[in-house]
Amino acid sequence: MKIRVYIFLLVCFSLSPLLGQKKKKDASSLTHAQSEELMTEAMRHYMKDDFDEAILMWEHLILEIPKEASIYYYLGKAYLAQNKNSLAFQNAAEAWKLAPHSMDYGLFYVDIALDLRKIDEALAALHKMSEFDQIQPEIGLRLAQAYLWKENGKEALNALKKVEVWLEDFPEIVRTKQFIYLKEKDVLGAISAGFSLIENSPDELLFTWDQMETVWDLVSGKKLQEDLGPLKSKYFAQGQLNLMSAKLFLEAKDLDSTCIEILHAAADSRMSSEILGQLTIQILELIKTKEHWQTVYEMVLELKGLYPIDPRFSALEGDLWANISKFKEAQDSYLKAARMGNAKFEVWARIIQLDYEMNLLDSATTHAEEALVLFPNQGYLWFQKGFAEYLNGKVSESIRSFEGAVPMANSQDGWYTQLYGLLGDAYHSKSLYKQSDACFEKVLVVNPTEEHVLNNYSYYLSLRREKLEKAAFMSKKLVDKFPTNGTYLDTYAWVLFQSGAYEESLLYIEKALKDEKQNSSTVWEHYGDVLFKNGRVDEAVKAWKIAKSLEGASNKLDKKIENKRIIEN
Asked: Helices 137-149 and 171-183, interaxial angle, to 10°?
């Protein structure tokens, strides 16, 4: 309340008579001069932040003069300076009890009570103090704060209204009122409270941007749109009103009006480009025609001109191109956004995804590497880099990239199962079977029905003639679920073949051949092997010849055909 120099002078010159009077009344063992000297010395220690010494002196002085409120007051301040709030509260309470008409003592007690969340004690004190001065702003402000802690917005507003004659022009008070109105879900009340601020200070925003987050959640309904109409005309420089109107038009699925309001809002140089961007993203859902697309595209171009160094609007342009499958144009816009600086990780993810859409695997690798310079801890980028390398036949490189993603992968990530599924494939291709199996097991813990892993894991086990019972169990799951899928039928047939169940294997391999989309050289070679094991050698040779004529034929086929038997090695 008072600066320390004032406190010091107050003690030295104003309290001397009091100390002398207390001496006579309480029969203190200290003389008047000694009491005054002790008080002055304590204040000197307090001024030097030597709180322990000051407290010792004041505690001693209290024993001599136990009814002196000022000593409890300064003791409380010293304890508060040491963050001993409970002791500060006890002494502040005693000071105010001894001098209930003192505003300084009372407010000090209330402030500590509020800090300690002793709201009822603070309210009781404030109401008692207000009996002496109902329009004291210091009391009104604290009453509002206390009622807010009690979740009583109505009483908090009443407290502020009683003292608004003194505080109306203070921005902090207006913001507090708006906070209360918003807490009560009264958007129009919050807007009205803000007008007293912007009418006196036109450069002020109607709401702070932090407050706008709450406003945003509350803006809804046709009635509010009608109320905003005349306000937008009167306060045309307040773009936040246009923002609210844009959200309401968006809610009503009125694309054209939403775009108009967004551009009006953007004309306010104080506007948040982030909120404009969020609104525009939501508009994309309303695009149903070429005309809609063109309207939004023209708006985004205007926003790009207004915010030339903000990457979000180039990214939005990319979204629009991607919306109509113009992948090259979309990627160019995304790259422009990404290379402006401060682009989000998601923009790079879109760039790489478009590389896959256009089957540009080398480009996907290059872009992933560029993005990793900016976001080295994004496991998804390591995964995408590894995926491109794997598809490009660079298995060793893909393993290193996949392993780079592993420390950052979380089972909640959408790409988690893909990562371990592909890493399992890559390890297997390098004969790292233990690591491969471990990857597949991780996937199955998260998703026991993951098709890629169930099929490949069971097939790899069959090739190694290991855990064939487990392989059969996994493969049969897929066959039962997809009884006409040639790939899954072939895998199950091969597991049965490796288990020695040749007749049953033949049933499933013949079913696999009925799925012509999945017929490959491998399936026909397997068919030949199964026929051979069932004693149908001539038919086996015919099957092997068909296999040899197809892409990806095994180099064992020539010997099988020539020798009319299976070549094991």
From this structure: 30
